[in-house]
Prior knowledge:
- This protein is α+β, with helices and mostly antiparallel strands.
- Helices cover about 20% and strands about 40% of the residues.
- A five-stranded antiparallel beta sheet has the order 1-2-8-4-5, with no helix packed on it. A three-stranded antiparallel beta sheet has the order 3-7-6, with no helix packed on it.
- The relative contact order is 0.21.
Amino acid sequence: MKFTLVGAILFFNLIAFAYEKEDFQAYKEKYKGELAVVLNHDQKLEASVNKKTGELELYRTETEEVLYLTESANFYTKKYISLSEYFQDIVYTNAVVIDAKGKKYKVKKDAFTTVDAEPSSWVFHDDDKEVVFDLNKLGEGYRSIITYTKKLKKPEFFGKKEK
Length: 163
């Protein structure tokens, strides 16, 4: 019985891997000349009232999954999450790289650092920050899944309900 169960699990894993390989080839042909393709970009907004303070709390969670189509993707491992320190806090970060064989590599929590953002050429904001991290290794057939949650610090800027 054990052998049959293990065999079934291995069989389904091989089928899933073969499907991903076919999927990768289809993306590579469809997006010839592109470095990567975004497979999924999801944004969720959560609003709640803090029971202790009665204050409105707003959170925005973003998740992005990218499939890398060429080996040159390895030159683009450094990633940034922009925020305005006056208006937002990053309360959650998670980044995972999945290699072409399906092995997952999680970016460690201490790899995320907050730095001052470079000033833009058209406007100056002294509170602009970036959370910087490195995916370490990317290549053809690799995927990255990056998720982060921002808490909005000043929800009163959404306006007040007219009476």
